[in-house]
Automatic annotation (TrEMBL):
InterPro entries linked: 7tm6_olfct_rcpt
Source taxonomy: Eukaryota, Metazoa, Ecdysozoa, Arthropoda, Hexapoda
GO biological process, one term: signal transduction
GO cellular component, as recorded: plasma membrane
Cell compartment(s), UniProt: Cell membrane
Membrane spanning residue stretches: 109-130, 142-161, 199-220, 256-278, 357-379
A Pfam family matched in the record: 7tm_6
DNA repair is among the record's keywords: no
Sorted UniProt keywords: Cell membrane, Membrane, Olfaction, Receptor, Sensory transduction, Transducer, Transmembrane, Transmembrane helix
Protein's UniProt name: Odorant receptor
Organism: Vespula maculifrons (Eastern yellow jacket)
Protein topology in the membrane: Multi-pass membrane protein
Family note: Belongs to the insect chemoreceptor superfamily. Heteromeric odorant receptor channel (TC 1.A.69) family.
Length: 466
């Protein structure tokens, strides 16, 4: 901007420097806004008509730009990676803090757990005793929200109990970003952070869409005629009269919203942590591939830093694994059961009488099944990526210029290759690792077995689903 003024403006007459000093107070605000923001001249911001010669502004700008640096507040790497999840988790009281006992945050978590338990899990579980003889009602009870609400309560409690540990991991993420000085390393870290943001946005949109669609479906199918509840539950009082019905329906809506939101937040949070590890492993691979040293002292210094970084990433992943492996085991089992029950309900809907809301109900079921599959695939995706990136460390050690090292120095790389042969994993209760193979096993084989069982149940009722 200053170059343009110098080319287009006449030469300034600076013989009278007192004039510049007298006008300095008038022009300073204008120069700062013009020179530092790069905007057009805004005379209204000065409060006084500027001199006709625009080179006066160039003169003052050159004299004072170096004395008035603009300080820009850098956005936290954690804030960028987790995106709007930060604000939602703070509203829910789930954002990790150093102290586990925090009255304000604990009240938020307990409020969510109260709604999920009081209007979701407990009434549906009690209702099982009253419908136990009816196979279809039992399936509807378990498939709708009972299993999902129970798992969500468990996830909220596990996440809250590990808040201090997770806060330490977030601090480590910030330190990793500060230590990254090379442009290539920063780009790879930001790519992992962008992937975390995209995943959180996508999963949040899907979860909120399911919540809205189910409200529309229930209001369209149950409210006008039978004043049915959001999901079948037992309450020790009359539910149809007003305002009992409206209050219970509102409580169940809050329960469904809290359970959907809590489950989504926990899943995307864990995925973001593991994607950060994947980004760090990618940086470590490139550093190992480009490993060079001129002296023996430099070799040991660089290699020691690589080994420490590799060990740190192993501990980071192990911490996440220890915090959530039992939770993931229960969630995987719950997802499998829910998929099977929803498949059975879909078959029954196709086999039974079709009303005017048939397509809406089938659409909601399909949408809900897709959401459950996305939940499961999210862990399988990050687990597969973690597996491939961690095993790639051994390949990176082989691809470096080890042939230019001395025999003793080259042997040191064997330790890294040997350690990398035990890949980093995220498991379901230490029983199985999350990867693409596990997703295929749950999605295809187990669901097929349960579907065959439910088909035989339908045939025993002399119903032809096709």
């Amino acid at each position: 901007m200053l170059d343009v003024y110098e080319r287009t403006s006449p030469k300034p007459n600076i013989s009278d420097m007192n004039l510049i000093n007298n006008e300095y107070g008038i022009m300073l605000a204008f120069v700062r806004a013009c020179a530092m923001k790069g905007t057009e001249l805004m005379i209204s911001d000065i409060g006084k008509e500027p001199p006709q010669n625009s080179s006066w502004y160039v003169l003052v700008a050159k004299a004072h730009m170096g004395k008035t640096p603009v300080e820009t507040k850098k956005r936290s790497h954690v804030d960028y990676a987790f995106g709007w999840n930060i604000y939602t988790m703070r509203v829910m009281g789930l954002w990790p803090e150093e102290k586990m006992i925090n009255p304000t945050e604990n009240l938020k978590v307990l409020t969510a757990v109260f709604f999920i338990f009081s209007f979701g899990s407990l009434p549906q579980t009690v209702n099982l005793f009253f419908v136990w003889g009816d196979f279809d009602l039992v399936v509807e009870n378990l498939a709708m929200d009972n299993v999902f609400c129970t798992i969500t309560i468990m996830k909220a409690i596990v996440f809250w109990l590990n808040g201090k540990t997770l806060k330490g991991l977030l601090n480590s993420m910030e330190e990793d970003r500060k230590e990254a000085t090379r442009e290539e390393d920063v780009k790879r870290m930001m790519m992992a952070a962008r992937n975390s943001r995209k995943i959180s946005i996508m999963v949040n949109i899907i979860s909120h869409s399911i919540f809205v669609i189910y409200i529309i479906m229930h209001l369209a199918t149950n409210y006008p005629n039978v004043r049915g509840l959001y999901y079948q539950s037992y309450f020790p009082w009359e539910t149809k009269p007003s305002p009992n019905y409206e209050l219970i329906f509102l409580g169940q809506m809050m329960s469904a919203y809290y359970s959907t939101l809590t489950s989504t937040l926990v899943d995307t949070f864990v995925a973001a942590l593991l994607l950060h590890v994947c980004g760090q492993l990618t940086n470590l691979k490139h550093e190992l591939i480009n490993f060079q040293s001129e002296t023996k002292k430099e070799f040991h210094r660089k290699l020691g830093r690589i080994v420490k970084k590799h060990d740190y990433l192993n501990e980071f992943t192990e911490t996440v694994e220890n915090c959530f492996n039992m939770m993931l085991l229960i969630q995987m089992f719950g997802c499998t059961v829910t998929l099977c029950l929803e498949s059975f309900q879909s078959l029954e809907s196709l086999a039974g009488e079709k009303d005017k809301y048939f397509l809406l109900e089938i659409g909601c079921t399909v949408f809900y099944v897709c959401y459950i599959l996305i939940q499961l695939y999210l862990y399988c995706y990050v687990g597969e990526k973690l597996l491939s990136e961690s095993t790639g460390i051994a390949d990176a050690a082989y691809e470096c210029e080890w042939f230019n090292l001395s025999p003793n120095e080259a042997k040191c790389l064997i330790l890294i290759m040997r350690r990398a042969r035990s890949p980093l994993r995220i498991t379901a209760g230490k029983f199985c690792s999350f990867n693409h193979e596990l997703f295929s096993e749950v999605r295809i084989r187990k669901c097929q077995r349960f579907t065959d069982l439910f088909k035989s149940q339908i045939n025993s009722k002399s119903i032809n689903p096709f």
